[in-house]
Design brief:
- The chain has 335 residues and is mainly alpha-helical.
- It is 73% helix and 6% strand.
- A hairpin with a 2-residue loop joins strand 1 and strand 2.
Amino acid sequence: MKVTLPFVLAAAAALAVALGAPLATTVLGLIAFGVLHNVLELRYVAGRFAPVLGGRLLAVLLGLISVIVLCRIAAMFVGQPARIAEILVGYAVLAAGCAYALRGRLLGLSGAALAVACAVSLTWPAYHFVVLAHLHNVVPLFFLWEWAAALPVLQRRWFRSVQVGWVFVLPVAVLLGVFDVSSVSPSTVAAFAGDPGRIVALSAPPGSSVEIGARFLVVFAFLQTMHYFVWVYFLPRHAPDAARAFEARVPWLRGVRAWALGLGLGAFLGVLFAVDYASGRALYSAFASYHAYLEFPVVLAMLLGAGAARSQLVFRESATSGQQTAAVSMVTRES
């Protein structure tokens, strides 16, 4: 229960604040934890999945995502053309992940599926970015599911059931109107963020009614809060092996330095948020592309099975003195 109960309590608290003040939860949560969770998530993913995020693949991904950063900055000035360019490069990131994980007919099928999905996104780009915003918030489910493989069977089942509960069951309940969410009132606490409609538009499908838009904002505020809980509290506390693996690759960011970097950059950006929220959020969104897009190839490698082509991640979990230690190994195989 020591790893499951915190999620039950966190989900209850996150839902309460999201229902009570969705605008303030979204805005203030981003300012307080946005940059810090970027740094800690990158540390976890780069450490835990070092065999995937390395070599030529990492160079390709960093190059593509850097183009996305430029697209998001350009979107501040040219608008829709830059957003269309981001969609194209975003699918190139997914294609790179598929190329790493698959070979032969499966690679061809995945390429065809990506082409169809890309065409849909280009046809309805506004929906693409709403889906992307929510998808990013639920991605921790995949990492928590993988992490839980080391738990005893019964504990693992309870843990994974709770994860499915907060990722899917509670958001669906909100969208179906189980909770009373009739409108989104402007928050005096987050008044500096400007027009609430612009914030709602980031999380709700275009053309949504006031009621539906409010429900989607509550879902976004709830999932964003849980997203921060996973990356800022739970995984740093319960997966120290990932931090050690990252520090072996990046020794200059050992120990508290990662926290200091996240908090320092967060404080700097927080000033910009307070002065000009729209510009601050646009700048944050641009540089947050690295953590948001790097996680997708890793998830693809887990879902598609990287070992089906050239390599396979094997996580061996062992218990020593009541503490679990993870060893990550790469098993290379011929296609």
